[in-house]
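The step that takes the researchers longest sounds almost clerical: writing a folded protein down as plain text. The outcome of that step, for a single protein, is printed below.
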Amino acid sequence: MWHFLKGYVIIRAEGLCSARFLKRITNAGIPVADVRKEGDAAILFRMPAKRFYDLRKLRKGLPLRIRIVRRGGLPFRLEKLYKRPVLWIGTCLLFAGIAFLSTRIWFIRIVETKRVDPEEITELLAERGIYPGAYLEGPILITAANDLSAQIHDAAWIGLDREGVLLTVNVVESLPESLQRADRIPSDITAEKDGVITSIQVMRGQANVKIGDSVRKGSVLISGEVVYKDRYIDMAADGVVYAAVQYRVETELPERITEAYETEAAETVRILRVWNYEILRTEPQFEHYRMIGPGAIRSNGLLPVSIETQEAREIAFRERTLSQEEAEEYALASAREQAFAMVPHDASIINTYGTIRTVNGKHVAVVIVTAEEIIGKTEEESRDR
């Protein structure tokens, strides 16, 4: 980094005394780096640009030639910019424009809501001077967030979070009126699906099952009807019930499959980036392909513009006949994938079982996935006594 800031030159010294010449340079206290040999009588090395003219004295009496192969570093780049005023003026204008644009918001992102209309939020923000291109200062976001929370009926809380040119609107919706009255309506907790009870926690009501019981869909797990001092009390049952639920998938063994493979065809894909944002990309002519990367990146070091190259390899498809062993492995993998897709994302996998069976004269793969999950749901009850 220090060499880049001060400027450096790459020197080629050619002659039978190049090694002695290099020793004179180091004895004179001139720092050199990246020394490498070229052929039998030439060396390349890097040194500070401002010490180049000292080499004239040091080469006296030595039969060799020296020349500058390359100049590098900040001083030389600034010199090039000085000779090209359009480029450095344009660069200054670019950074000035970026600095100006970064003081305003240009994008408003509203986190997904179910009952609050995003257009209503956008209109109310615009009434308060918050829109794409607006300049915000002071506590305007805090004031606007409080106003919107009070004005939108279905919003319990609204937060406005600014990150650079992006304004994110976070909305916490209030509970629907029906749910607010739910704790006053008599109800039971019933099973949504078949399973074996693994855990039950009763917050309100009477448990009708215990750990280890097998239940069917629709069975009452926690009843809202409670007997207290020889009289019935109806309440809204509340609690959490976990059960082990099985998901079963059967798949016939395939005789042939279509598989993908790489051909020898390849194309180069170029990606234009400004900073880390992709601006333009060339597309390969293949219908199906796989990208190999990241590839080489070219940048001039002054502007935040770079070109990245990657390789796209063509993907083709062909049919292949499976052996018995391959067909069994393929069918088991397919059935296992389907079974896992049926399991809720918040469930815990307890066990996975897979086997090959003969059903109606056909070989099939059978996979059973057992998962622990919450199976209770609230169901209103009307009781006549």
